[in-house]
Amino acid sequence: MSDLRDLYQEVILDHNRSPRNFGALPQCNRKADGHNPLCGDVVTVYLTVADGRVADLRFEGKGCAISVASASIMTELIKGRTVAEARAVFAHFRAVVTGSEDHEESLDEDLDKLQVLSGVREFPMRVKCATLAWHTLAAALDDKGETVVTE
Ligand code: ZN
After folding, report:
1. How far is the CA of 121 from the centre of ligand 1 (A)?
2. What is the pLDDT of residue 117?
């Protein structure tokens, strides 16, 4: 189990060091800002939604390693999915990081990547760091513009 934990740690640090899909997306048609006041994490998520599909997405922001890694992994997993799939992946991710069983079974193998963040379920403060980018993604999908993680 500790080997697995080390591996997870390594993946998180790697995403934090070199976040994927990082930077503004000038041609985006949806955008939202997220803020986690408990930790000070801030993130902006940019989406290009076309024909009900997330054709492209990028993020900017700064915060702790968990928040940055989670945003980076999110962009990799959401790009190319339909809006409905994106919401389902978020529901699954929430189950992974909170340890609730409801959506625990994976929609597809790609989502196993989310397990690297499962360790945060033991640290309720960290759950908000992990879910910030996802709540911001949901706000962008809903065209809400801004979100503060409160749960
Ligand atoms: Zn944080």
Report:
1. 14
2. 95
